[in-house]
Amino acid sequence: MNVKVNNLIKSIEKVVSPGGVLVGEDVTDRSDTWPPMGGCQAMAIIRPVSTEEVSQVLKLCHAAGQNVVTHGGLTGLVGGAVAGKEDIVLSLERMHRIEAVDTINRTVIVEAGVPLQKVHEAAEEADLLFPLDLGARGSCTIGGNISTNAGGNSVIRYGMMREQLLGVEAVLADGTIISSLNAVIKNNTGYDLKQLFVGSEGTLGIVTRAVLRLRPLPRSCNTALVAIDHFDRVAGFLGAMDSALGGTLSAFEVLWNDFYQTVVGDGSEHIPPLGSSHNFYVLLESTGGHQESDRLRFEGALEEAFESELIVDAVIAQSKQQRQDLWAIRDDIVGLTAKLSPPILFDVSLGISEMDGFVAGVRKQLTNRWPHSKMVAFGHLGDGNIHLTVTVGSHEPSEVHAVETIIYEALGRCQGIISAEHGIGLEKREFLIHSRSAVEIALMKTLKQALDPKGILNRGKIFPE
Amino acid sequence: MNVKVNNLIKSIEKVVSPGGVLVGEDVTDRSDTWPPMGGCQAMAIIRPVSTEEVSQVLKLCHAAGQNVVTHGGLTGLVGGAVAGKEDIVLSLERMHRIEAVDTINRTVIVEAGVPLQKVHEAAEEADLLFPLDLGARGSCTIGGNISTNAGGNSVIRYGMMREQLLGVEAVLADGTIISSLNAVIKNNTGYDLKQLFVGSEGTLGIVTRAVLRLRPLPRSCNTALVAIDHFDRVAGFLGAMDSALGGTLSAFEVLWNDFYQTVVGDGSEHIPPLGSSHNFYVLLESTGGHQESDRLRFEGALEEAFESELIVDAVIAQSKQQRQDLWAIRDDIVGLTAKLSPPILFDVSLGISEMDGFVAGVRKQLTNRWPHSKMVAFGHLGDGNIHLTVTVGSHEPSEVHAVETIIYEALGRCQGIISAEHGIGLEKREFLIHSRSAVEIALMKTLKQALDPKGILNRGKIFPE
């Protein structure tokens, strides 16, 4: 570290509470990727305890032109939190208070470093629901959920993080505190500034506090796994269920046959709930207000779908345990990737009408080039979002790049989106042009320039170099 | 008109399709306010037929530093479309095509000048729903709905216009076309640029086309009017219904006693469905997927509310006609304002827990100052949004201003919002500071400066002078 940086870190030490600056092994022992591997390269990790301290730190960094990488729960999948040797990390790990649950207005104010699961628990204690939910719930933080506009399992019913957010407090690159802690659903008083910080991956400001919207806690839950033989009936089944269940459909996860076979096949711990010869499996769930009548409606809707030949087989969970067993199949990414090693992961959006052709097309291209390659498809089809896991038997950068190119070019041809949930970070920068035009990227840069003219916030992320 | 302006208008004439430029009486015969009164003062009204033409017009205006006021359906209530003698109006009235309803992916692409009701009709023809709905549906346009982030009757279930919008095509101040016609629910590829144009009242760009999200068309509808005697039970009833109906509550409109008495009282055409001595009336509606079982659930939920003494009386609509009759009471703004003339209108958001105190407090202040003043309260309580209609027997600007000051200062004291749905426009500029901080307004101006450095888009709107 040179003298200038040394002096900057000393100045920072004076404005943050004791224990707020980590250097040396305390930094390198940490990770900035998922899964964690250690070896964070940053010069220091700064851990403020308040918005005011974040502001003081950013003022100093701004004056010094020092790049800052913000850390939440470090469960992102695109390298958005990776820090280089010239970077300082600002971690929100000491800002994890849940400040107030308001049961009448159904809101909660939290600090950005609070883990998602803690918010679930606080809401549930107040007989309310915070609906955003994803696998990383125990580690990921609300700040990270905001900066990546997290999605997950209940988007079909409640929308993404953007829709759960009423207000934010954030700190701009120069240390200015924007306190925009709106707590109402409707606020048309000028520009909705919080939108700037949602999904911008820490490049436009650092969110320090948030007002979240809570919902009534569902009183019923019905879950089924169904088998379908043709893709067009998957789309038809989605429409039929969404309509018959009156907007209470809360999950519609599709597993292509290859996913199902891989996860429940030889050597698996799962007991296959349905035969494994069907082309598609749908895990669907509906939550509502009255267990008995919701159950009847759920069964009735499935019966109708069966009679109209949309589905060919179905199993309805009869207990909490059975529900968990069904979800365990969908969620067994560890089991999946163990059999597709080394895995290359994709998270794409596209029109439901394009999906079957897209999956078949890229599968063919991959097999042509790598005869032993494997690809499985699954995901939040109700949101137009599928995940692909591919292996070509190698993790060589050139091979990975060739796979990415095949998939993103195919996506571009059907107006698909290269990142539905995960964001762009470092890893998808090069491919951003497949989903966004040069004019759009130029306007993004105009915003970046306006809010962070020195470019000190998460420099190098999102934008192609 | 001076030579420079004359030349500009001649240049514009060359880039728009025949009939695209109105001047003289064709302008002054038109209105730019609601209700329409004629007398638009603009130098010309330009009527492009395509995004490309909008771009050409803006390029010319930008080069000339010419201010442009965009016109949609002209049903706004805050003077956002008012044009002065130095302004040119750009009207999207010739861009009203519905380009494509996609029934599988449930989207529709429309031009910005299409009236809301035409989108309702196109969706319904495809057995789908476009859920945004407001009184001005026959005249207001999708472009206006976007630029004001319109709300209306079904926000509690589906959210505001922002939540119905997947993508936009817009033209920036300098004529740059931003084609960001995203058609998927999940797209985390960099900044979500469409958010810039939602609720910014034509000050950051002109939306020319939009991709809208459609929903399943409900198969059931249940409506009731209930009477409640204490405000805390209104809030309790909202929570109970939202929970018992499992998220299918699609309207929760509250009428304070004064509204009900004014609208159904002496000389009214309405037959009062409930006695008029109760303190609060709630019009609630639930839509779902199955008429028979939804009806049972709706009745059961009301019965429970009755037994737990949340409500004291109720009438459930037994036919379409009875439903219409109940809604006619809520929607009888003409009948209301006839008895509160001249009316001063307010559209505020605040915490449900603050509402009763706020209404009582301002009522007292108004009566103290104007003993014969009247105020009625009603609105979308499920969204934290109420409307107030006040009369003090005069429409003198100083009197109106005094009323506004009382109400907005009271709102500021309870973190209320001076405009829930209507926007700021010209009329609420002065009061913006009651809902937004100086730092927030400065950041809004940073955005305005970045996107429209010459300040030619709807100059003078939103920001206090």
Structural commentary:
The structure is a homodimer of 465-residue chains. With 465 residues, the first copy, chain A, is an alpha+beta fold. In chain A, 35% of the residues lie in helices and 20% in strands. Chain A contains 15 helices and 18 strands. Chain A has a 7-stranded antiparallel beta sheet, with helices on both faces. A 5-stranded antiparallel beta sheet of chain A has the order 5-6-10-8-9. A 4-stranded mixed beta sheet of chain A has the order 1-2-4-3. In chain A, strand 8 (165-171) and strand 9 (177-180) form a beta hairpin. The first copy, chain A, is globular and about 75 Å long. The first copy, chain A, starts with a helix and ends in a 14-residue tail after the last helix. The mean pLDDT of chain A is 96. The interface between A and B is large, with 98 and 97 residues.
Rounded mean pLDDT score of chain A: 96
Q: How far is the first residue's CA from the last residue's CA of chain A?
A: 26 Å
What's the total count of β strands of chain A? 18
The main β sheet of chain A shows up as: 7 strands, antiparallel
User: In percent, how much strand structure appears in the residues of chain A?
Assistant: 15-25%
Using CB atoms under 8 Å apart, which protein chain pair has the greatest interface? A-B, 98 and 97 residues
Helical region count of chain A?
15
Low-pLDDT segments, ≥5 res of chain A: none
What does the oligomeric state look like here?
Answer: homodimer
What is the rounded Rg of chain A? 23 Å
Q: Pairing-aware structural class of the strands and helices of chain A?
A: alpha+beta
**Biggest β-sheet: strands ordered side by side in the sheet of chain A:** 15-12-14-13-17-18-16
Portion in helices of chain A: 25-40%
Q: What is the overall shape of chain A?
A: globular
